[in-house]
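Progress narrative, Year 2. Work on FAD-binding domain-containing protein from Caballeronia sordidicola advanced from sequence curation to structure prediction during this period.
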Amino acid sequence: MEKRMSAQKPNRHKTLDVSPVLIAGAGPTGLAAAMSLSRAGIPVRLVDKAPEPSPWSRAIGIQARTLELFEQHRLVEPFLELGHRARTGNLYSNGQRLTQLDFDPLQTRYPFLLFLDQSVTERLMTEHLETFDVRVERGVELIHFNQGSAGLEATLQHANGAEEHVRPSYLIGADGAHSTVRHGLNIEFTGKTFEQTFLLADLHADTEWPDDEFHIFASGEGIATLFPMGGGRTRLIADQRVAAQSPDAPDSLQKSAAPTLDECRELIARRIHHRVTVTNLAWSSYFRLNNRMVDQMRSGRVFLAGDAAHVHSPAGAQGMNTGIQEAFNLGWKIARTLAGVASDRLLDTYHTERHPIEREVLRTSSFMTQMAAAEHGPMKLIRDHVMPVLSAIGPLRDAARRTVSELSVQYRKSPLTLERGLDGGPRAGDRAPDAWVHVVDGPLGRAPGVGCLFDLHDPAYFSLFLMVKPSEDDDIALAPATLTVAHALRDKELDELAKSVEEALPNSVRVWRITDKGDDGARSLTEAYGRTRPCFYLVRPDGYIAARGRAPSDTQGLLRHCETWFGAGTEE
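Result:
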């Protein structure tokens, strides 16, 4: 068996001599934006008005797609080490289990929902940023900004009251639901406030279930959820049915006193109907749910991301994950624009691609919350009688787990996608799935070997994967030094394709020639991409497929697409 090639070391482009991108808010969204930009060599200033990071757990669910993105940024290992994996979710009505959703069938290295305190998530991301010499400026608040013909100007206020005037190249508002950036743009935050107040508590729970399962309980009393966080630690979320407050009411801490351990015990006894013993209340809070979003995520040189752009129910554990994915979507686009190789219209695709996804997340999470909370009527009928039937249908079950894990996120309708109609496999706009491959040739004279596609992709670059079928007389089981390169891989036209794309995307693309190599039960290239004939896949820095087609017959279409949107030939 051939030795697996090691993942590429974290890399970054040489830092560009441009004005820094200013990021307001050092939560997961702002940190992810700084990671993406720094990796691409773009200077950033990341400011947060809080003098210290929050010690509370807050958002805890990390989805498979987010873990894949962390892997590509060479950051996933500490998350896996510190987080707690839940492989199954259960939905109950009045104590009876209605349906179970398991994540094991997902085609990913991470077939689970990872639970980890948000404070730890932020610490790990902050430490990763420090390897790029980027540090969070705490106690620094964005208090004003304006943009005009002279560019973008912003005023920062430091903890000692001193004001600093800066001229950033762009501003990313990742400053939460009460965003200063959003208010400064006068962009409405349309939507509604849920009628219920919700209770949140982190405590120790002894239950009858395995610790790799989470549970959602619906009853006439209301909702209760239990999310395992490892070592007996459990997150309890439940609704408290009270009259709705003003839409302008804060999202959290709606009562003067936090929930007590006795209140949590009483609520569990009324709603869960299973053996659950709780002790050691570590933290608790009341909060309100809003379902709101902006109608535009970009205004000139200013962008909104994360809770600054949308807030919704925690149902499905989507919120933090969507913010992180927005940041990775935006980062590489700003980087290409500041590098002078892409036009301003590339930045418009941030809204074009992400806004429909966030709108669907709001719709779905609102539906799930209302269905779980229903005491009677059509929603209760759907929950108790329709869902168990639908969840037993294989394709619908698979769609549900892919939606929750965010592996189904795609940009097929984006102008950035070029689809040449290959049979089977992921389409342009889809996430590029991982696969076990044999590398025949790679950048910088990379020696042949066996590895995973995710190990090859570096989010500081585009990746062009030339996928070909070995000739019949190739023996790919031989040691790398004795491999016979397939005749198709030596084809002059493929060499010209690689060279042409490198010229269209100067210093921005890494070309890999790969062929199938199934091993140790891992998913093969053919299983993941469904191709045996020569083809190409161009993967964006954020891990989504920009273009795919036949190699080399679709070369000219690929080059035009690169020059139109990504490369030196971009037209204003």
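Confidence is low (pLDDT under 50) at residues 1-7, 243-255, 471-490. The chain has 14 helices and 27 strands.
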